[in-house]
Amino acid sequence: MTPSCFPIRVVAAIAAAAISLAVPACSGSSSPTSSGPVAHFTPDTPTPADGSITMLAGSSVGTAISIRVTVTKVNTFFGAAFRVHYDPTSLLFRGIDTSSSFLTQGVTPGDVDFQADAASVGGEVIVVATRLNPTVAPPVDVTATSDLLTLQFQARKAIAAGAAGGLLSFDDPKQVCDGTVVPSGCGSIAVTWSAGSVTAH
Asked: Are residues 161 and 51 in contact, defined by beta-carbon separation less than 8 angstroms?
């Protein structure tokens, strides 16, 4: 395998884990508001375990809320592909923010790829976050809880604590890769996944 083919194989393998990835997500036409319900996020695991991908609360303004997707103590982290399930009648997906991602540190924007597709499957955001060429932008040893990216949602209506409309989950297929290529795709890293729920009142 030549070096020029290597990153293409890795990215293809990571993307295949999420299935049907196309273009970065559009958000929505609604605008966040400071009136009406105030949105909050409660993580299922407030203190992330080692070897995990965990949603944690970010900032919130009125109905708009940011949810951090974090990685804790995962060695040789090169990229991830996963699906986030949500109720589109209760929540509007507005996009992702990658400015705080540890994948971008020490590399150029052309060395990383972020995709978030909320159009292909109703009620799911299909996400890819990866470096592209391990010989140029190598895998990262994540030693402390660090941001992979931030999901941005808006509450469409009031959501009570524990209501199904506010629940978020990581759905299959989901995978973390170490940057190597194996016959079935990429070298997979076993992690635990933990999400949470949104309230708005």
From this structure: no
